[in-house]
Amino acid sequence: MTQVRRLRRRLPHGMAGYLSRSSFRLIRYCWSKGMVDEVLGVDSAVVERAKQMVLEYRQLSARHAVHLSVMEQNGIATILSFDPGFEMFPGIVRMV
Hints:
The structure is a single chain. By secondary structure, the protein is mainly alpha-helical. The protein contains four helices and two strands. It has two domains: 3-32, no CATH class; 44-95. The chain starts with a helix and ends with a strand.
């Protein structure tokens, strides 16, 4: 069994179909370096909160809003990202 298949089996139900092969490589790399313990899923509450964020912060992309909504729902305030777009949201610390 390949590493990608093993990783797909560990993801929350239904999430594996939404990720590209390159996303799996990134997640696998982060797991191998001990940077990630868990991959969090997206449910309807996350999507609803993301919609609210996009309406409130017009310059925020839908993709950023989903990430931020998942973080908010799970009490996470720090994100590892090269994207400075996350800095516009109050209370979020971006690590590079």
